[in-house]
Every structure is written in C-alpha cells, then in structure tokens.
Design the sequence.
C-alpha cells in the first residue's frame, strides 16, 4: 500500500542502504546516510538543514546525518542534519529531532515528541508520546519517559545558560513531570506523575510531588495484581528487552551495563 | 481552493461514498469505507496499516476502517485501520488515532490530540487540542476533555498491565489533568485544572488537586457572570447539542441516556 | 536542497513579494499576501479557510491573510486566513495558527504550538515548543512563554464565555503553567514552572504553585552562575533583542515601550 515512489525526493548526495523503503512525499537531503533495511514512511524530512541554510543557501554544506539499520521512521517525522541514530530505531508520527542528537541502538520515540538537539541517549531508551527533551539532556540506557514530560535547561529564563538534566540507567519518568535544569536522576529511579524535580535523586528512589520529595525505595513498590515488588523492573518486564530470553541476571552478567 | 485532486492516492479496495471530497496529498489505504458527504482535507492518511505490515508486506491484509457520514477530517490527520467512527465526526489538524478506536456519533477531536487505540467513545464527546487518551480508555456520552489532559493505563511502568480510565456521561476534565490507571469518573463530574486523579469519583463531584480530592458538589459551582449554578451544564450550554431546540429536560425525556 | 517547486500550489488571488521562497508540497490559498524575502518551507498551508468554507464552497470568500517580510515559516505549519503577522516572524515546525490572530514584529512561535485564533501579540514575543494560547488572549511585548504552557478562557466549561488572559511586557511564563481565564499578569513577572495562576499578578512578582502565590520580587532572584540579580532580564539577556548593541537603558530611552 505504501511505497509507491510518488513525489519522493532523494538528494544525489545521500547514501541509501540495501532494502531501504522510502514513503511517498518524503524528502532525503544532502549527506544523509540511511543504513540497510530501514523504512522511512510517508511525508518525512530526513536531514533537515540548519538555520544557517536559509541565510546562506549557496555556501551551505549539510552536516552528515546517519540513520541506523533496521529502523522504522513513521510518517510526518522531521529529523535534522547532524544526528547520529543507532540501529533498530523506531518512531511514532510527527516526531521532531533537531540537529546533532545522538541515539544508541533500539531507541523508540513516540508520536509528537520533540527532541531539541545536542542530546545524548544510550541504548533502549523509550519515549512515549509528546515528550519534550531540551538541549544538552543526557539519558542513560533503558530509560523510559512517559507522555508530557519536559526536560528543561535554563534556570533563569531567558539566559544563555543551557544545563540539561541527566537520567541514569533503568530510570522511569512518569507523565507530566518536569526535570529542572541540571538535575541528575540516578539509576533505577521512579519519578511519579506530575512531579517537578529540582534536586538530584539517588539510585533506587521513588520521588513524587511539586517540588518532588523522596517517598520510598522503589523496591518497596508493589505490583497491583501480584502484590510483589515490581522494581527493579527488568525482572518483571521483558517485552522487547535484550534479556527476554535468558532473564535479566544472566543477561547482565554477560552484557550488562 | 482545496480539493484539486493533486497527488491523491486512493486504494482500489477503498469504498468512497457519494459527495465525498478528498484533499490534495491525502492517502486512503485498503479496506477503508468513507460514508457520504464526508470531507478528508489535505495531507491526511486514512487506514494507516498496523505495525505488522512493515515486517510482512506481502501477506498483510488491512483491517476495515469506517469513517461515518457528514464528517470533516482536517489536514495532516492520521487515522489507523480498524477504527470505526460514527457520523458527524470532526477533527482539528494533526490528530493521530491509532488502531481499533471506536467513536459514536458527533464526536470532535482537537488539533494534535493522540488517541492511542483500543478506546471506546460514546456520542458527542468533544476533545479539545492536545489530549492524550491511552489504550483501553472508555468515555461515555457528552464527555468534554480540555487541552493537555492525559489518560494513563499502566500503574507500575513499565509492565504489561493496561487498565484504562473511564469517564461517565456529561463529565468535564479540565486542562492539565491526569487520570491514573483504572480510575472511574462518574456522571456530571468536573475535574479541575491540574488535577491528578487516583481514586474513583462519584457522580456530580468537583475534584481538584494532586492528589485530587472532592471539593464540593458541582451543582454548587456558580456561573461567573450570572451567579447562578452552572452545573449540570446541559441546562446552560446548548451550542451543537441535540437539545438546543427543545431544552435538555424535554430532550432527555425523549432520547436521553 | 529545498525549494524545488515540486507540487506547490499558489492561488491566482495570492500576492507573493520579491525574493519569496515557497517549499515543496506547500499551498497558498486565496487572498494571502506574503511580503518580501519571506520563506515558507515544505508542506505548509497558508490562508487555511474558515469552517464556513466546507459548508458553502461556492459563495465563500477567503478573508485576507498577511505574512510580514523577512519571515521564516518552517515545514508543516498551518496558518489560517484572517491573520495579520508582522515582519521578521519565525516559526518551528507543525505550528497551527487559527484565524484572525495578530502578531507584531519579530515574534517566534515554537514547534507544535497551537494558537487558537482571535489573539493579539505585541512585538518580540517568543513562544517555545508546544504552547497553547486560547482565543482572546493578549500578550504584550517581549513576552516569553516556555513549553507546555496553556492559556485558558472558559471559567465554567462548557459555556459560551470566552475571557482570555493577558500578559504584560517582559514577563516570563515557565513550563507547565496554566493561566486561568481572564487572569492579568503584570510587567516583568515570572510565573514559575508548574503554576496554576488564578489571580492577577502585579508587576515584578515571582509567583509559583497551584494555586500560584507570590514568592518574592523577581529582582531578588539570582543568576545561578554569577550570583547577581538576573531580573529585570533585559539587562542580562540580549541575544536577538533590539537593545543588543546599545544596552537596554539606552534603547529604552530611544524606543522603549
């Protein structure tokens, strides 16, 4: 149904891998590299030029953009030039990823999410719909972020300071939370819904509220159905995770972070 | 001005009713049924295939999608296959509706809203801009939801549990509120701005806060101009409502829910 | 790279200035005026018709729409008819601006922001990503609004009342804040992250919380690095501001508001 090659524009200076499909009305700009088996769906823009392109069209050189292999970019996404995106990446619709964003492998970015550029993601970060990641944010591995979360970076707006938050491996940031500029969230943390986090959070803490305060150790949070501890969640949730076959302990011994 | 039939793609396996208009750059996929007098504006995708399409293009069969009569889908919307949408539906721009969503008649979905699929809406539900409805949510009839409201469904993220909230007839969910997983909101309720609702709410209650607590009976809330009780709102607001001619009491006797 | 003139539609009744560029797949409807040196990027809709167009295609006249000179409208934006937009305007991607919105000069509107129409902006208003401005809102000059802020206008939803908030010159509204209907924010104010503002705010106040209360005079807020007062911010932040050459005091004497 898709991929009829209608109204597709691919720069001569793009490199398109084997078995790549590009949807109708999509545009691939200069110096984009798309690796094998990747799908770019309809109405996407890959390698969107920097602001300076508009003021200096003739001398402008588009920085290289890399989209990993075996990825799926759904329709209406815009990915700027200068991004380096690992293999097995996937997005929802209408995702905007600004320039010089770096993603490890197996990341997923939900519909309408807005990545502001100059960010660093590890592997297996999953962002749900409508997440806003400010410039210079850092996410570790297996970080999950839920809808309408905002990572901020300017402590006294407006200013020229830009101090992104950072989130450690396996941490979860629930809906409607704000990470204030420069906050460091540890590993295996849970930020509860609607929290505004202004202070650093140690590993394994559940923080909630505005301003967010420590409520308990996440290992005390029970599963609603089984009544057992749900966290650390890698023992309870394996769908799409690299330990789905052998279990988290075994995986961690071999490959763990 | 619109509807020049430029760059439109309609599957041979779609059924297009009488007097239907389809805007430029729009795509109608396999097994979509669009009923009479409906308008699909520019740059829309109707019948977007499931994830499994991408991994198995050859054997894939697109589930049927039904768009009711006399509807207006504004530009840049994406509606997945498997949806059943009643007559007199309308959307703003850039709405995403995922698979197997069911809507009664006369529903309106605002710009950028994101319906995650597997949801059930009654009749006359109006969602304002930028509402996020998680999977397995249930809305009754005449439910109005205001901007930046999120319906969630996973009590201990990440997990494989998915317990959507439900909202009763005539209830109103104000801006920036979150319904936590499985919460049941009664009929004629008002959830105040910025609330996080974690407990069930009885009929006619005004709840506010994080966590949301009962403040008063909604029938005690006054109209700012007249000083009279504003709720139950169907006595005060009739624009676009089926009781606009005869009044709510008379309508309810004849057709009411 | 852009501007290949593929699949562009421009009404015969539009007036396009000198040195204007229009991106691929964009549409310019009747009675749109685009002034000199302006760039409309890909997949944009300028002069989107009113609702009445759909019910009365033959007699419909599109109200005039003016896009100022030296502006940049990024891809996937939709600007309705009846808008009057000053010079040096710029937008991110996927911005929706509904009918009869008025903007002074040098305004910037971030990605996914949703301007609901019938609003009035002064000069140099900067909206970050994903801001929602309800109908009949008024912004002064040099008002900065950060992500996921909502301006509301109906005190007892649903009703036919529409009372927009107003914000004075130089004020800052931080992430995740809600301005309730009819609230008046003074000049040089700072609304802290996650606030719900239900009462008017005097000049130079920092308000925070839900409901928002006065915390201090903004002139007591220190810069995190220098330890000096950061506000009034025009003395500390000059990037893109008209006083970047001569300083705020000097500029204000000559041109100030």
Sequence:
């Amino acid at each position: 149904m898709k991929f009829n090659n209608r109204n597709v524009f691919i720069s001569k200076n793009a490199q398109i891998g084997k078995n790549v499909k590009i949807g109708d009305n999509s545009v691939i700009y200069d110096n984009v590299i798309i690796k094998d088996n990747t799908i770019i769906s309809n109405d996407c823009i890959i390698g969107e030029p920097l602001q300076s392109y508009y003021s200096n069209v003739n001398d402008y050189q588009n920085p290289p953009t890399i989209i990993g292999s075996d990825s799926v970019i759904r329709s209406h996404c815009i990915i700027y030039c200068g991004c380096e995106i690992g293999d097995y990446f996937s997005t929802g619709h209408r995702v905007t990823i600004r320039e010089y964003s770096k993603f490890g492998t197996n990341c997923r970015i939900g519909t309408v999410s807005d990545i502001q550029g100059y960010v660093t993601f590890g592997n297996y970060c999953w962002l749900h719909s409508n997440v806003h990641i400010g410039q210079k944010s850092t996410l570790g591995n297996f970080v999950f972020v839920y809808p309408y979360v905002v990572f901020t970076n300017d402590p006294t707006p407006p200013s020229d300071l830009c101090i992104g938050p950072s989130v450690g491996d396996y941490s979860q940031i629930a809906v409607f939370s704000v990470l204030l500029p420069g906050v460091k969230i540890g590993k295996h943390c849970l930020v509860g819904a609607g929290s505004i986090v202004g202070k650093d959070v140690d590993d394994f803490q559940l923080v909630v509220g505005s301003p967010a305060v420590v409520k308990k150790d996440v290992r005390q949070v029970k599963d609603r159905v089984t009544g057992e501890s749900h966290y650390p969640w890698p023992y309870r949730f394996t769908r799409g995770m690299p330990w789905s076959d052998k279990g988290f302990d075994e995986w961690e011994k071999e490959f763990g972070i």
